[in-house]
Q: What sequence folds into this?
């Protein structure tokens, strides 16, 4: 039985940038444990000799030429912005640099 | 107790890891057709793809792949027959999709090396830097931090984002751990970035302007006790943006680590930022918990499997390697190692070569770029290459000296004028009324005056003591305000005193 | 007129018997009349639709040669971006967002002169099988308004079944076109992966998502498929080859001599008796038409659901990261960018979306990647191999589309695993990238609700879906004497 703890969910929520209430953490940890039990079955058949498939069709080398295409106008680019200033997206203060 | 650098080196061995990011000079971005021109109005070079709008999909720029393969080949890498893009997942406002399309365990180039030369106490020594991988990724947008301390992220009230840079193709070149450089670690780091930059420039894949951020270096530094196997804890100094800063940042980190270790403290694995003004580093935001980038193959892109003949075609068009070019130039110019290293260090090789190509004598061309121009560059804390003087100007000055229209001293005034933006050499000569006094009668008058003023010196010269003439020549030069050709003065003076 | 097929409407437009404006107005009126009960639409673009219709009429009048479906109205799943028209994906997150660009599908619809009536309801970000996960409201099944219309594309299928539109666009990541088609008595096609451009389709799971046609009959779907399908240089995963001739295949509805493979693993336990019965009748019809029915085994299909519920959440955890309140969509919360992101994502995403993001984040995280995401990708390989094997024994494969008919709204909302089981028969095609169609197989005896018959074909063999689908459809139609939807309640009669 996979056991996902509250702390696990809290850490996942942090990675996924979703605030969660205590209730949600409790609820999700028990729910996820059940779901993970169900999906863990994939490990039964996934042998070492089976290559993974990340793309359903075996395609390679899809490129475009290095040519310019029209950009959006700044108005269009910023049309959905919750806030803007000086033709830029205005966002709350950023805490640290990556 | 902090150690001096010499003491540090006796006890510890520095190990470097260098990650260089290069913005490729393609016309369009990595995954869309937006322009990559630097300095455009904010958010004028964006589209659904590079803004990460819902539904938009990336398509790989073929030129970016070609450039990356060229870089790999120039760095003696193997080109992967099959490589893949992967998503690096983390949240940051300057990254429109909140994942960076990058490469993870299947980079396009791997396993190369680059040899760099460093001037050591025992002469010029070569160090081999092993390249772990060369991979493709995309750049992020740019943030302006508003309010609070000017432009700093800390204490800002809010930020403004411009995504023109988001999605510009970026190549990351990662070294294996570099050990065995001992006290020369800072110089080796600098020489590596410098050599890499020369290669990238010669390939024409990037404008490699560190000051504009098109070439950025992250320097990983760790120390271990001499003889120890295990690597020490490293720090990663991010986005160092000049060659000089690379060298200084490495040295500063070595000293900082040593000081910590001597106090019995731990070096924390963290990212740090280098400050040009103080010459030291400060920590980035410490993360309470580790990031987990959750890399996985980018499902919106298909794998890259470059055909052999494509790779060979790229290989066939690779330009001469900068190191080979240097050897060739050194031979043709007959320059000693030290002088050659000096030119490379001052980053004026291109300028000297172009000056020579314009007809100047190699020795003269070199002495201008390494002498007066380097001196002014140093004074202004700028690279010589960024001063507003061109090989054309220098070649012209050299030619004018050759024709006797300028003396060395006058030429220095002209060069300074060019650097100060007063115009091209001819214009400055005209504007400043610079003229070599070559009129024999005017010179003779000055010579006669100098003999009158120092008759006893003149006697010595007449008596065959030629070196004494210097005092007289000096007086003539002074009288003519330096506008006379010293050689000519000497000739006339000696003749006049019966010694020619 | 609104109960006619799209092909019949197109013929009436071509003959001049009808104008596109009249046809569009009739559908807008129908929407006005019934959509407060069905709740298929999130946004109706009356003005835009009429303008488009006028334009098509004018072009036709001017003698311009128009594409076959020009002037026929269509309902667009709200996951597909349309310039200037609200696109929410059924989420609070995108409230008020009007995209500044057209998806490739929309661009092709527009250039074919198809009239886009509006955007249809869906499970939030296409995650669900009932359309109950829409942040706006649930959509109701026109056959029984207390029941779900399937999902995630329940709005599109309900709009077809309620005669609000003769054509619709859906997207299918694990069955979101086919399962709603099955439970509403309509036709839905999941094309071969890469057969229809994903550019402008708001991604749920990039390696599984595929847009496709929804209609009330096979031929209509084939016409629509030919409009939206084919190579698109804006989608790197788009197949650079011509579509097989789909309309021709639908018209050449013959199965004589074909081998039809019944997948052993996709029947039996968990399947409603009435659904299986109609499925078996479908097989009999095909046999009567001269097809050879063979049984095939796909032993790894039993792992498909598990693999799907790792791969789709993993990809979605990354795809949905961009909804962060910085560039578009809603913004809430105080403090730093990070705090605002956290608060906005908490408010903007519904329960199921959060559940999947967290699950996907877990499956990709270091230390668990190999066991979960990595293993799921290997299962994907095994499922593709099962298909390859099966296609050596049969030209097409068949199964019931969904194990049951439409369930009651609210019945399974608190049991995610029971909900996930709805897609057990449709998921394998998505994992392998092959194509599938659902056509009505009849009404289940026990509840009188529609059931679906699924036909699957290999990659780029979408024509076989239409060929076999049209043959079976014709056989069943002659057996029933009238289209299945003629038996649905007449919602308009107040």
A:
């Amino acid at each position: 039985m996979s056991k996902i703890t509250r702390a696990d969910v809290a850490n996942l929520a942090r990675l996924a940038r979703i605030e969660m209430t205590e209730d949600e953490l409790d609820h999700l940890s028990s729910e996820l444990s059940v779901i993970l039990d169900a999906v863990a079955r994939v490990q039964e058949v996934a042998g070492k000799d089976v290559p993974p498939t990340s793309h359903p069709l075996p395609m390679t080398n899809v490129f475009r030429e290095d040519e310019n295409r029209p950009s959006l106008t700044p108005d269009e680019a910023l049309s959905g912005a919750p806030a803007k200033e000086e033709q830029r997206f205005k966002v709350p203060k950023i805490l640290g640099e990556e | 107790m902090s150690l001096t650098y010499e003491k540090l080196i006796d006890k510890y061995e520095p190990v470097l890891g260098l990650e260089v990011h290069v913005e490729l000079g393609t016309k369009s971005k990595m995954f869309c057709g937006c322009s990559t021109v630097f300095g455009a109005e904010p958010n004028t070079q964006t589209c659904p793809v590079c803004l990460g709008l819902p539904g938009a999909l990336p398509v790989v720029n073929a030129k970016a792949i070609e450039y990356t393969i060229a870089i790999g080949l120039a760095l003696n890498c193997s080109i992967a027959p099959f490589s893949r893009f992967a998503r690096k997942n983390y949240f940051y406002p300057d990254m429109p999709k909140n994942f960076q399309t990058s490469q993870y365990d299947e980079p396009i180039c791997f396993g190369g090396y680059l040899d760099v030369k460093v001037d050591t106490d025992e002469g010029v020594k070569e160090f081999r830097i092993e390249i772990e991988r060369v991979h493709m990724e995309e750049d992020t947008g740019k943030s302006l931090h508003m309010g609070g301390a000017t432009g700093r992220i800390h204490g800002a009230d809010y930020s403004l984002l411009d995504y023109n840079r988001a999605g510009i193709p970026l190549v990351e070149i990662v070294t294996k751990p570099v050990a065995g450089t001992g006290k020369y670690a800072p110089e080796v780091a600098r020489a590596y970035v410098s050599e890499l930059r020369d290669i990238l420039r010669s390939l024409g894949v990037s404008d490699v302007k560190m000051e504009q951020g098109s070439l950025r270096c992250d320097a990983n530094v760790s120390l271990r006790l001499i003889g120890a196997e295990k690597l020490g804890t490293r720090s990663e100094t991010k986005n160092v943006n000049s060659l000089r800063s690379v060298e200084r940042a490495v040295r500063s980190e070595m000293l900082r680590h040593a000081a910590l270790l001597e106090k019995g403290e731990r070096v924390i694995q963290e990212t740090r930022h280098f400050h040009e003004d103080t010459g030291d580093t400060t920590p980035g935001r410490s993360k309470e918990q580790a990031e987990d980038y959750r890399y996985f193959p980018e499902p919106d892109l298909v794998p890259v499997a470059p055909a052999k003949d494509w790779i060979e075609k790229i290989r066939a068009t690779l330009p001469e390697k900068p190191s080979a070019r240097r050897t060739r130039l050194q031979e043709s110019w007959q320059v000693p190692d030290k002088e050659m290293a000096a030119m490379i260090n001052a980053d004026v090789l291109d300028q000297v070569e172009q000056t020579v190509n314009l007809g100047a004598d190699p020795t003269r061309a070199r002495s201008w770029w390494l002498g007066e121009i380097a001196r002014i560059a140093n004074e202004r804390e700028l690279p010589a290459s960024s001063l507003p003087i061109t090989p054309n100007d220098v070649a012209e000055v050299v030619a004018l000296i050759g024709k006797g229209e300028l003396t060395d001293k006058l030429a220095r005034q002209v060069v300074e004028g060019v650097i100060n933006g007063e115009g091209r050499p001819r214009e400055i000569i005209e504007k400043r009324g610079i003229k070599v006094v070559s009129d024999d009668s005017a010179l003779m008058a000055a010579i006669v005056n100098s003999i009158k003023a120092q008759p006893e010196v003149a006697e010595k010269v007449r008596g065959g003591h030629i070196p004494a003439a210097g005092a007289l020549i000096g007086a003539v030069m002074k009288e003519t305000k330096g506008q006379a050709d010293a050689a000519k003065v000497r000739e006339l003076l000696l003749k006049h005193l019966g010694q020619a | 007129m609104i109960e006619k097929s799209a092909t019949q409407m197109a013929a009436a437009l071509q003959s001049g018997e009808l104008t596109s404006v009249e046809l569009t107005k009739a559908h807008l009126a129908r929407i006005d009349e019934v959509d407060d009960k069905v709740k298929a639409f999130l946004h109706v673009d009356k003005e835009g639709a009429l303008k488009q219709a006028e334009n098509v009429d004018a072009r036709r009048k001017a003698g311009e040669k128009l594409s076959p479906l020009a002037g026929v109205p269509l309902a667009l799943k709200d996951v597909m971006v349309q310039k200037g028209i609200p696109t929410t994906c059924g989420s609070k997150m995108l409230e008020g967002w009007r995209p500044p660009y057209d998806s490739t599908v929309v661009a092709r619809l527009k250039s074919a002169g198809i009239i886009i009536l509006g955007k249809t309801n869906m499970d939030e970000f296409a995650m669900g099988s009932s359309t109950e996960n829409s942040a706006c409201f649930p959509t109701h099944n026109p056959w029984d308004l207390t029941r779900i219309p399937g999902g995630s594309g329940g709005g599109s299928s309900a709009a077809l079944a309620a005669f609000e539109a003769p054509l619709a666009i859906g997207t299918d990541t694990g069955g979101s076109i086919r399962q709603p088609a099955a439970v509403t008595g309509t036709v839905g096609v999941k094309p071969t992966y890469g057969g229809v451009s994903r550019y402008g389709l708001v991604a749920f799971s990039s390696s599984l998502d595929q847009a496709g046609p929804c209609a009330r009959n096979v031929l209509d779907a084939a016409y629509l498929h030919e409009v939206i399908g084919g190579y698109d240089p804006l989608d790197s995963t788009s197949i650079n080859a011509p579509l097989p001739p789909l309309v021709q295949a639908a018209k050449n509805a013959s199965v004589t001599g074909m081998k039809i493979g019944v997948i052993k693993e996709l029947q039996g336990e968990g399947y409603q008796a009435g659904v299986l019965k109609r499925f078996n009748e479908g097989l009999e019809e095909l046999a009567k038409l001269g097809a050879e029915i063979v049984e095939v085994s796909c032993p790894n299909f039993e792992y498909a659901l598990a693999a799907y519920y790792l791969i789709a959440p993993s990809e979605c955890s990354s795809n949905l990261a961009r909804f962060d309140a910085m560039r578009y969509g809603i913004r809430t919360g105080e403090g730093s960018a990070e705090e605002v992101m956290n608060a906005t994502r908490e408010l903007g995403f519904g329960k199921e979306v959060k559940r999947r993001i967290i699950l996907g984040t877990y499956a990709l995280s270091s230390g668990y990647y190999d066991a979960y995401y990595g293993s799921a990708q290997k299962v994907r390989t095994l499922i593709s191999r099962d298909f390859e094997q099966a296609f050596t024994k049969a030209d097409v494969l068949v199964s019931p589309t969904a194990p049951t008919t439409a369930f009651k709204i609210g019945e399974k909302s608190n049991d995610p695993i029971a909900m996930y089981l709805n897609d057990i028969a449709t998921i394998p095609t998505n994992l392998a990238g092959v194509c599938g169609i659902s056509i009505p197989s009849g009404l289940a005896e026990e509840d009188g609700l529609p059931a679906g018959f699924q036909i699957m074909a290999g990659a780029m063999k979408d024509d076989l879906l239409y060929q076999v689908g049209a043959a079976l459809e014709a056989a069943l139609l002659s057996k029933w004497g009238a289209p299945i939807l003629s038996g649905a309640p007449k919602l308009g009669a107040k």
